[in-house]
Amino acid sequence: MSILSMLLIVAALAAPDEAKPSDEVKTANPRLQVRTAIEDGIRLLEAKEFKTFIERYAHPMDLKKILKEKSVDELAKEFQESNAEKLLVVLQMIRRDTPEMSEDGRQAVFKLKAEGLPRDGIRYEKSGDFWYIRN
Length: 135
Description:
Blueprint: H1 3-14, H2 34-46, H3 50-57, H4 60-66, H5 72-82, H6 84-94, E1 100-101, E2 107-111, E3 121-127, E4 130-133
Helix pairs in contact: 2-3, 2-6, 3-5
């Protein structure tokens, strides 16, 4: 049996029978797809990696403006104290929802269906190759 044949057999055995929402394809960078961006955001917030979350998911233009006034560490501390827990709840709520997509496919809006939230939706925007939160 050739090496190629063995690799194909191993790949076939390792592949899931059918895709499930929780078995999403892992990409090299989770920001390449809005679904993996949401899951990565949940993971970072649950792990209390607020600075990494901000660096990864704040839109670069927004982050650039904010960093003129304060450091990423200061921003992460403020985020932890004010909005991190609420955003985690929101991301958990939308993780299986279907967003409304813009015509050009670069904006995804998830409608929020619960009362008591500060907004009625959350918007992701694709800038370059990556998805960012843009509210």
